[in-house]
Amino acid sequence: MQKLLLALLLALPAFSQPAALRDLDEYIQRAMKTFDVPGVAVAVVKDGQVVLAKGYGVRRLGESASVDPHTLFGIGSNTKAFTTASLAILADEGKLSWDDRVVDRLPGFQMYDPYVTHEMTIRDLLTHRSGLGLGAGDLLFFPPSSYTREDIIYKLRYIKPETSFRSKYAYDNLLYMVAGQIIPAVTGEQWQDFIRERIFATVGMNDSTTTVAAFRSGTDFATPHSEVEGKLTPIAAAQIDNLAPAGAINSSVTDMAKWMMVQLAGGKLPDGDKRLFSEKEGREMWSAQTILPVGEPPAALAALRINFAAYGLGWVLRDYRGRKYVSHTGGLPGYVSQVALIPDAKLGVVVLTNQEATGILSSIVDRILDAYLTDQQTDWTTVFHDLVEKQRAQAADVEKKHSGERNAASKPSLALEKYAGEYVDAWYGDISISSEPKGLVMRFSHSPALTGDLEHWQYDTFVAHWRDRSLAADAFVAFSLNPDGSVNQVKMVPVSSLTDFSYDFQDLLIKPKK
């Protein structure tokens, strides 16, 4: 019955949509070709109604199964809004307050700085102002690791801050996982169970899951894809249950349309009599918590110059052509997504994809927003593609410069087997370097994908080429020696400026294990 109703909605006459949306199918298909994306799903809601919920392309490259309105995609960090909504529900029930101290809810919680440990609140967990650096500690879960949520929370105490507490915005994932652990501490119910029972079931999000373990043969899900050494390739969906509250939800545009309508209604459910969360808590989640810097956009984006930007509770807040704009993006290996809401227009757009091409998100979202908010029809696909290509060219130039400055004639100070050994980082844990017939091999003990062959670069610096080439995260590995010639420490840094920030190799200080 639900699928029949959706089919009827999609069959509404063309005049129910803005004129500028009538060529949307053609526009999206061109964007998919431009950004080399196999599958896309898009939903638009307006004035409490689903205007569009449609799939484009295929679930897996080389196969015929089409993306449809019920196809599941990983939504990555769009999960964060579900975690904050869960906490808002508990705040409505009087079971917690945003300004409760974390240590009062999770007695074992500890940050590097004792003052931060003592003062950090639930609100602080959600607003990217803890003092941690960008993506700090993400290697504890990304690429997928064997650490549990409890392990990761314990290791937070060893991650040094980059700035003082509450002084600067720096996006993080780990503290959202901590926020998710507040739920079982308060209710006795695990995050994933609470999400399924209190949000998915209540809103009617019947397709959605909290884990890729639900992706079995015959399931309507989009296979993630990544560029592997220049070729678009299907990859395995990342298992990140240990960081689920920050990014593990899988959803369809059918379900995300329902989610957007509840958000735009200030927490009201479709029947109008019940609420997911109160209007008060809805305003709190959409209120500025951490101010974000506003820079000058590239010339090509001058028309989208913003006047303010802030992070709320699970949402990014800014303006779009003078209107309040509430949004978030999400990224996982092989998936990127975006949710965009214009509250005063009662307008919402969601785009889900099975390729890591972020440019397609803004290309489609901005085209749809403009169709409703302006009389302009900018070719955003060309604009964002050109920007992406410029970034790639700049990154290639930097790598070329590094290669040109390399002293390729230099030799390692030690015989290769002298670099081998057991190492440890204070927060990540054990890392081994072994001397094997073809050379040195680096292995991160809890992250199977971080197994790489070390190629000599210059002096005592090598490059780790990860055997899983879908990671696109090769890193310099620089050894420092003691006066007696033994290894003192090892530092790492990504080779390319395009490496995802979650590969926070630069935060490691690797020491020989005693």
Task: Write structural notes for this entry.
The chain is α+β, with helices and mostly antiparallel strands. The protein folds into two domains: 2-92 and 175-390, Beta-lactamase; 416-512, Lipocalin (Beta Barrel), CATH 2.40.128.50. It has 14 helices and 20 strands. The strands form four sheets. It has an eight-stranded antiparallel beta sheet, sandwiched between helices. An eight-stranded antiparallel beta sheet has the order 19-18-17-16-15-14-13-20, with no helix packed on it. It has a two-stranded antiparallel ribbon with strand order 3-6. Helix 2 (24-35) packs antiparallel against helix 13 (359-373), helix 3 runs parallel beside helix 8 (174-187) and helix 13 (359-373) packs antiparallel against helix 14.
Query: In DSSP terms, counting alpha (H) and pi (I) runs of 4 or more, how many helices?
Result: 14
Q: How many angstroms does the end-to-end distance come to?
A: 65 Å
Stated plainly, the CATH topology of the largest domain is called Beta-lactamase
Mean pLDDT: 93
**Poorly predicted runs:** 1-15
Radius of gyration: 24 Å
* Spatial strand order of the main sheet: 2-1-12-11-10-9-8-7
Q: What's the total number of strands? A: 20
CATH architecture verdict of the largest domain:
3-Layer(aba) Sandwich
* Relative helix content: 25-40%
